[in-house]
Amino acid sequence: MASINTTEVISNSKFNRFHFGLLAWCFIIILFDGYDLVVYGTVVPVLTEEWNLTSVEAGAMGSYGLFGMMFGAIFFGTLADRIGRKNVIAISLILFSLFTLLCGFASTPTIFSTFRFLAGLGLGGIMPNVIALLTDYAPKTMRSMVVSIVLCGYSFGGMLAPILGILLMPSLGWESIFWFAGIPLLFLPIMMKHLPETSTHLIRINRKEELIRVLSKVSPDSNFTIHDEIVEVKKSDEKLPIVGLFKNSRALSTLMFWVAFFMCLLMVYGLNTWLPKLMIEAGYALNSSLGFLIVLQGGAIVGTLIIAKLCDRYGSKKMLVPLYALGAISLTLLGMGGSSFMIYTLVAIAGACTIGAQNLVQAYVSQYYPPNIRSTALGMASGIGRIGGMLGPILGGFLLSISLPIQLNFIAFAIPGLIAAIALSFVPVKMAYYKNNQPEQSEEIMVDSNKMNIL
Fold first, then answer.
1. Long-range contact list for 171-175, CB < 8 A, 24+ apart?
2. Residue 418 has pLDDT above 50, yes or no
3. What's this model's pTM, rounded to 2 decimal places?
């Protein structure tokens, strides 16, 4: 009878079929998450005319979904550390897919906004738990890369929304691109069958047989049996998991991550909602303006993959601080105009430094905190960030309503990037869990063939 340390097994595993399957499912989920988030920015020019909305009203409608995301991220992020990430992922997927689908049947701004809020609850809960699940099972040497690849699904979904807008809206109307969002409901049963639950949760609820089965897939070269003992590190449970974010000298890091998330999501959702409209104001046609939204997401994909590799090699903080600063510079230059090539290049850089940076900072947070509070850390940071996300569309609508020069509109979205860079520079790397993974206040759990006993 052997002893199995699940943390060591997972950390030392090699990327294999199990990891690829997990990555693929999570990529699909995040793709639709990105689609559902960006779809409103695709239709807002049409809705503004059809429903006679002012810029401020349209911006407020865009913020209802983000308002729901704030509550969803905090509630479902904390809940997942108690009932399991897999269950919360399923609940969140049902919420955002169903109510985004129903947006295509809304006949008034009030009904539309209500559906966006309810969809936002699921959208807020899905990403923190997908990232946490990936980090739980990714090999130690490529955690940033695995998480970043999956988060590129957000940008692919963001590109898909304007592409379908160009193809479908002229003939089928704006409603048609919301109907597409219901597809995840069809593959939910298959997803639930293939997605694993985290090892820590399986230990907590005494499902050793399932844990052994999952570990055998994680490390197929190892020989695990039901008679083996499970040696796992268990941190003392907090009645309020959020307290753990401020313990062991993590208070400064937590606050600075919250500032960075707030500022970056203000930029991300402000641009996703208003970039087409801003480019129309600058003299471009609707289809060309939607093209800029596609380039924004394309830049995010390329930037995420390139920088993620560097993050695994040199450290996330060293890459993210200059990335945020570069985003501020690119947005400032974007407002000054130039040749078509220059504009497209700046939009792509802006995508890498806003959406791409947000992808990477989530991967960073998922590794910075211990596994037992990982979903809580991501959920709280995302929830605080959604407040900035709510302000983004409102800020853009307000700026357009007062008819400022186009340059000042872009500068307004550039300033948060500079603030995010400053905030992240204060995060102490030495306090990261991946740097000091000797758990505090730990107990050793030995699991025999029949039950789990805390020794």
1. 174/43, 174/46, 174/47, 174/50, 175/104, 175/105
2. yes
3. 0.72
